Amino acid sequence: MRWFLGTIAVLIIAIAIYLGLAASSLATLAAAARAGDIAKVLEKTDTRAVSRSLANQIVNAYLDRIGATRQVGAMEKMLINTYGATIADAMAAKMLTAENLTQILKNGKVDAAQGLPSFAGLPALGDLQTDNWLSLLGRVNFIQPVLLGIRVSDKSDPESYAAIDLHFTGDEWKLSGIELPKPIVRTLAASLPVK
User: Fold this and answer.
1) Judging by beta carbons within 10 Å of its beta carbon (0-12, 13-18, 19+), is residue 106 exposed, middle or buried?
2) Are the C-beta atoms of 177 and 164 separated by less than 8 Å?
3) Would you state the pLDDT for residue 193?
């Protein structure tokens, strides 16, 4: 019986540390976004993973867009996933300059730049109240043991859902993805050429 209770206690402590580290990293990232601290935002971000996340969303929205008007064959999907990903990667790279990333997290918008459409309406991470841990638990989506999704949108319906993904990298949690609301992703995908 003692062994069982000891195991339960260790498990509870491990879960508390796990969630505590995630909440602490989220609070640090949100505070850096609110303050516009570009260096701290970059320190807490895996920009390569965030870029992949955005590029995948843009390519998927593009496929949905052209698939709405005609049948998309397997070869065409492969070409779009290859060629479209290259264009979407370039778009994501423009979105993820240090200034733009901080602006996205702080204000939920990006101003138009070279080949990049402007968008607004993304719920800002800086607006998330990170001091209420119980409220945050209601926003957590356990994707994998080392990957958490944190909903930043007020609503969880599929059209307006927005979240950030945090990935555990060994000793800390880092921003590894931004899930944009569908209207914003469609706006970005609409700027890709249609063929």
Assistant:
1) buried
2) yes
3) 66
Q: Token pair for residue 20?
A: 């505590």
Task: Look at phi and psi of residue 152 and say left if phi exceeds 0, alpha if psi is from -120 to 50, else beta.
Answer: alpha
Which residues of the chain are modeled with pLDDT < 50? none
Q: Is the pTM of this model over 0.85?
A: no
Q: How do the domains of the chain map onto residue ranges?
A: 2-190
Sign of the CA dihedral with 184 first, then 55, 102, and 164 last = positive
Q: Which tokens go with 35?
A: 């303050």
What pLDDT sits at residue 177?
92
Backbone angles phi, psi at 46, to 5 degrees: -95, 90
* Alpha helix positions (H), the chain: 2-35, 38-43, 47-67, 74-79, 85-95, 98-107, 133-137, 182-190
Give the dihedral of Cα atoms 27, 137, 150, 40; nearest 10 deg. 10
pLDDT of residue 3: 83
Instruction: Please state the length of the chain.
Output: 195
pLDDT for the residue 93: 80
pLDDT of residue 76: 67
Q: Could you tell me which residues are beta bridge partners of residue 48?
A: none
- Kindly report the number of other CB atoms within 10 A of residue 118's CB atom: 10
Q: What is the pLDDT of residue 186?
A: 86
With 0-12 / 13-18 / 19 or more C-beta atoms within 10 angstroms meaning exposed / middle / buried, residue 164 is buried
State how far the Cα of 27 lies from the Cα of 130, in Å rounded to an integer.
5
Q: Hey, what are 4's tokens?
A: 């069982």
